[in-house]
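Something for you to look into today, if you have time. Just paste the record in under my message, thanks.
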Amino acid sequence: MSKLETDHKPEWRVRIDAIEGTSVYLPYIPGWVYDNVQCGNALDILRNLKDGSYDLVLALAILEHFDRNDGLEFLSHLKRIGRKVIISVPKNVMPQEVSGYPYETHRSHWSDTDLAACGFNRFIPHFGAWIAIYDPEISPVAQAARQKSLARQAITFSGESSLKNGSTPPDLAEIKASLETITNLLAEIREQQEVTNSERLSLRFRWRSLVHKGASKLRR
């Protein structure tokens, strides 16, 4: 049943709420997506929400707009009100300040080790952002088993990892698997390039043939 069907909206079992810090952005938020949109300082709003209010809390590209202390409080509230939490923060936070819009300012930088220290125990690989998941259902044993994967996911384009102390580096089998994946991707790109070049050659010969035929007719 679609949430877009207003006749059935009361029967929809999923509640989606949101927080927007700046009122001028409210007209650009699709109201049909959300049941409730609160406007204001996120920390003020989060402090008044009950524990376990949501099955999932999503906070993308927000954490870097808090200073360190407020950011730690922000994360603690997300884990308090949500059974599971997904956040993202840029790996490289560039200076940003927009006049008249204080919530657009970048105030802090966060690493994967910072997020792991705050209880986030799963990371989704991404080239430009740390995408971290807080999932209390992962047991300590399962967390230990994921350390090698976590170390591998922390590697950035520069080849460096912020997991320097107490981390297990990827073993030979993991490196081999990564190389095989890269090799397969390169093979697919090469194959696609060959197909594209063949099509271009085919079109070129067709065009030359048409031009040649047209010139022959003109000579006659």
Notes: Confidence is low (pLDDT under 50) at residues 151-161.
